Amino acid sequence: MNPSHNFRFIERDYWYQKALCDTDHLLPAQIDDMLDEAHTYYADYTFKFYDDGSVTIIDNDTNNRIKPKELTGAVYDFYIRKRIYMIKANLIEKQLQHAN
């Protein structure tokens, strides 16, 4: 069995947190209103990163698989950052195993 590390990315929450942290002039309710008025699709994906380096991405709205090359914007940024994090963690784990 190949263990996985699961992460959920909800794009609307990402933009909400970003707006909340980047401004002192907007109230949380105003940020919610702006995001609602945008009438845009916000991705809701589950990422499963496996120890062998593979990844499975599921669209939680449609239950369809998404390929990494289909990602854009904030979702792509999230994917890249988590991928780098997982690679670093894997390397550190391997170094610790061989140090003993």
TrEMBL record:
<protein>
    <submittedName>
        <fullName>Uncharacterized protein</fullName>
    </submittedName>
</protein>
